[in-house]
Write a structure and sequence with these properties.
- The protein is an all-alpha fold.
- It is 58% helix and 0% strand.
- The radius of gyration is 23 Å and the shape is elongated.
Length: 97
């Protein structure tokens, strides 16, 4: 016996996801079935879900931020820093960005 699941989604989301799955050689219904199968296989979401903070220091207290700033100043006084150009160049080489 088969059950039916109905889900309301924004028209744009439906069109874009239909096209994506078509490009991947499947359809949206099969993709949803795959999602449900994988959720059961891993006993949870088949991908990581996390809240992304726009500010990576948002979880730090004021005291923790001040300690990090002091440490950065100490490093700078000791010549332990990189030029922004060098950092950018290294990131492009390492990550392609």
């Amino acid at each position: 016996m088969a059950s039916t699941i109905q889900v309301r989604v924004d028209d744009d989301l439906k069109v874009k996801s239909d096209q994506l799955f078509k490009d991947l050689g499947t359809d949206t219904t099969t993709a949803i079935r795959m999602f449900l199968t994988q959720a059961l296989a891993v006993n949870g979401f088949p991908f990581e879900i996390k809240k992304i903070s726009a500010n990576p220091y948002g979880a730090l207290s004021e005291d923790e931020i001040l300690k990090k700033l002091e440490k950065a100043r100490e490093h700078a006084e000791q010549g332990m820093y990189k030029d922004a150009y060098d950092v950018s160049r290294d990131m492009k080489a390492k990550y392609g960005i």
